[in-house]
User: Which sequence fits this backbone?
């Protein structure tokens, strides 16, 4: 098993976004590195990615830089992989219908991660931007997105026992009364600190 160190710095904030700095190292891999990531949520209204950045890797023995990598795709894969692991450990093995809140990059990567660990046959999607949600359905290669939900309350469909939220919402979009007992919830809770996806009824009672 790999051992590693990771010590994120506090993010640097400005009026429109933030800069996150996440260094880490692994003795077994003989490298250390840092991920520098900017987050500007309003970029989505300008046809620009909300998350941009770089991963810089160094040789541990000499400190020689060995790689500069684009960070947004790595972030999408790593975040979804963590959700996939949680799903594998916590969710019902017979979960075949998945409800997802969100329609961006993380929605795409999470669909791929979840179907790798569970026999998902159908995904129902709700997003705050209906046009963008339709675009997600049309572009998704897995063909799993079976239904777009015009209202989030329709998540209460009886066969939805697995719910994932992958939004940048600052107001609760998931109501505790919509979630059935025994359902698995993966709440991404987008950075920064004022993001919120679940209401007050859901969190203390689960």
Assistant:
């Amino acid at each position: 098993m790999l051992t590693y160190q990771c010590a994120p710095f506090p993010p640097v904030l400005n009026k429109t976004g933030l800069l996150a700095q996440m260094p880490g190292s692994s003795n077994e891999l003989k490298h250390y590195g840092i991920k520098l990531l900017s987050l500007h949520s309003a970029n989505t209204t300008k046809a620009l990615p909300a998350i941009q950045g770089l991963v810089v890797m160094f040789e541990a023995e000499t400190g020689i830089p060995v790689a500069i990598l684009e960070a947004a795709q790595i972030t999408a894969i790593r975040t979804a992989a963590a959700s996939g692991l949680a799903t594998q450990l916590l969710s019902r093995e017979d979960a075949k219908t998945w409800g997802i809140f969100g329609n961006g990059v993380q929605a795409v990567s999470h669909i791929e991660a979840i179907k790798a660990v569970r026999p998902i046959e159908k995904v129902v999607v709700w997003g705050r931007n209906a046009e963008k949600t339709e675009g997600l359905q049309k572009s998704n290669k897995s063909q799993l997105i079976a239904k777009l939900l015009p209202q989030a309350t329709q998540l209460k469909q009886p066969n939805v026992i697995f719910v994932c939220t992958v939004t940048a919402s600052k107001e609760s979009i998931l109501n505790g009364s919509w979630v059935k007992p025994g359902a698995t919830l993966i709440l991404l809770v987008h950075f920064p600190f004022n993001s919120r996806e679940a209401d007050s009824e859901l969190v203390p009672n689960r």
Residues 41 and 50 are 5 Å apart (CA to CA). The helical segments are 71-90, 105-117, 130-139. The chain has two domains: 4-73, 76-187.
